[in-house]
């Protein structure tokens, strides 16, 4: 039987080597012959420390293998994490596939970087436990809801309970959220008046995700009756303000589960074709489609042309965002242009003001209707 104090071969065991302690700032100060506070100022580059003293402190640190103050401990002492959370309402891949989101996040990163902080992207569905764990447990100085956001998002409840400052771009519309907003309903009305002026009366809508537990298909019944995400709801309401048929009947609408060209194409086929997949005859299909984003609109145009329809001869299509649409070749999408970079800059400016102890006022950014080549008068019947 092996006895205590011997290894398997019967040799005496060696005592484990003591783990080498991490050198401390106090040890560096002692080696350099200065106070701990002076050593700290030297590492911070404080101009009150003369060059010779700073060199002595840095030389002592090099001898001891001291790399500098622990950034986590330093941030905790200052009460700051130097992290700004950014909530995107989908998988993170969405944020990099949407040209508008990319420009906005780039501008936001510039503003936050000037504060000495970085961005932490938080994606996923609203009730995803992993997402909520990140929101609940991660130290963050502030959080930006960058792609709208539902008013009842449980992540928002957690953040407000933690008293984390929150900025929302087009929502959520909740007490305690500082908003960078757009007049989505007014912009959609402008699109509606443009189509009405061209003579369109049979209009359908391709909507952005309406709310949690995203779906692909007709937007109707109880789901449509409940106010969804703010951008989708406001844009649909503005379109119906102008183009809803007499008697208060709703416009045909198709919900896309995500903002992509592929989903725009699927929506077009759902609105333009029958259950058998064949193109509906004139009079039974819309003469115009209002898509709630440019990516969705590009998908609608592509699918319509694939079905043999001329755009805008047989079908007019509008978008929303004002991003580049190289997939359309020389055609220019009729759309609502919104200031993507300004959205990010304003959100970053609000974060800076909140961290300085201020309370930023709501900002509403301007939007502009841009008429392109994808809209025209409906083709005469017969």
Folded structure, characterized:
There is one protein chain. The protein has 382 residues and is α/β, with parallel strands linked by helices. The protein folds into three domains: 25-69, no CATH class; 78-182 and 340-365, Response regulator (Rossmann fold, 3-Layer(aba) Sandwich), CATH 3.40.50.2300; 184-337, Response regulator (Rossmann fold), CATH 3.40.50. The protein is 40% helix and 13% strand. The strands form three sheets. It has a six-stranded parallel beta sheet, sandwiched between helices. Helix 6 (99-113) packs parallel to helix 14. The radius of gyration is 29 Å and the shape is elongated.
Helix and strand topology:
Elements: H1 25-32, H2 36-44, H3 51-64, H4 71-78, E1 83-87, H5 92-97, H6 99-113, E2 118-122, H7 129-137, E3 142-145, H8 154-162, E4 166-169, E5 177-182, H9 184-198, E6 203-207, E7 217-218, H10 221-225, H11 230-243, E8 253-255, H12 261-272, E9 288-291, H13 294-306, E10 316-318, E11 335-337, H14 340-355, E12 363-365, E13 368-370
Parallel strand pairs: 1-2, 1-3, 3-4, 4-5, 5-12, 6-8, 6-9, 9-10
Antiparallel strand pairs: 7-8, 11-13
Helix pairs in contact: 1-2, 1-3, 6-14, 7-8, 9-11, 12-13
What best-fitting shape do the alpha-carbon axes yield?
A: elongated
How widely separated are the two ends? 102 Å
Order of helices and strands: HHHHEHHEHEHEEHEEHHEHEHEEHEE
What is the mean predicted local confidence, pLDDT?
87
Largest sheet: 6 strands, parallel
Beta-strand fraction estimate: 5-15%
Strand order of the largest sheet: 2-1-3-4-5-12
Supply Rg: 29 Å
- Let me know the CATH homologous superfamily of the largest domain: Response regulator
Computed structural class: alpha/beta
Poorly predicted tracts of residues: 1-19
| Named CATH topology of the largest domain | Rossmann fold
Q: How many individual helices?
A: 14
């Amino acid at each position: 039987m092996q006895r205590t104090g011997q290894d398997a071969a019967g040799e005496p065991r060696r005592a484990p080597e003591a783990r080498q302690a991490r050198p401390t700032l106090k040890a560096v100060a002692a080696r350099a012959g200065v106070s701990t506070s002076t050593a700290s100022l030297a590492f911070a580059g404080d101009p009150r420390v003369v060059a010779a003293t700073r060199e002595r402190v840095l030389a002592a640190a090099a001898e001891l293998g001291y790399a500098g103050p622990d950034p986590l401990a330093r941030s905790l002492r200052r009460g700051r994490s130097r992290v700004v959370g950014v909530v995107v309402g989908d998988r993170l891949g969405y944020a990099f596939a949407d040209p508008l989101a990319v420009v906005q996040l780039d501008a936001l990163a510039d503003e936050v970087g000037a504060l000495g902080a970085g961005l932490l992207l938080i994606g996923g569905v609203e009730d995803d436990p992993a997402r909520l764990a990140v929101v609940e447990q991660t130290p963050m100085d502030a959080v930006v809801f960058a792609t709208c956001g539902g008013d009842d998002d449980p992540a928002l409840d957690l953040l407000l309970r933690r008293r984390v400052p929150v900025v929302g771009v087009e929502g959520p519309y909740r007490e305690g959220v500082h908003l960078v907003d757009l007049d989505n309903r007014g912009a959609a009305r402008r699109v509606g008046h443009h189509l009405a002026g061209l003579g369109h009366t049979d209009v359908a809508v391709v909507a952005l995700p309406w709310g949690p537990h995203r779906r692909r298909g007709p937007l109707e019944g109880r789901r449509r009756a409940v106010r969804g995400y703010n951008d989708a709801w406001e844009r649909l309401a503005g379109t119906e303000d102008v183009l809803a048929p007499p008697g208060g009947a709703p416009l045909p609408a198709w919900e896309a589960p995500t903002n992509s060209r592929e989903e725009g194409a699927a929506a077009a086929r759902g609105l333009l074709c029958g259950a058998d997949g064949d193109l509906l005859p004139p009079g039974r299909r819309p003469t115009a489609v209002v898509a709630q984003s440019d990516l969705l609109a590009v998908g609608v145009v592509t699918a319509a042309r694939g079905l043999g329809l001329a755009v805008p001869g047989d079908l007019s299509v509008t978008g929303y965002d004002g991003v580049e649409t190289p997939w359309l070749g020389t055609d220019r999408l009729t759309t609502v242009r919104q200031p993507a970079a300004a959205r990010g800059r304003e959100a970053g400016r609000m974060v800076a003001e909140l961290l300085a102890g201020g309370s930023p006022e709501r900002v509403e950014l301007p939007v502009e209707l841009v008429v392109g080549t994808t809209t025209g008068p409906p083709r005469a019947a017969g």
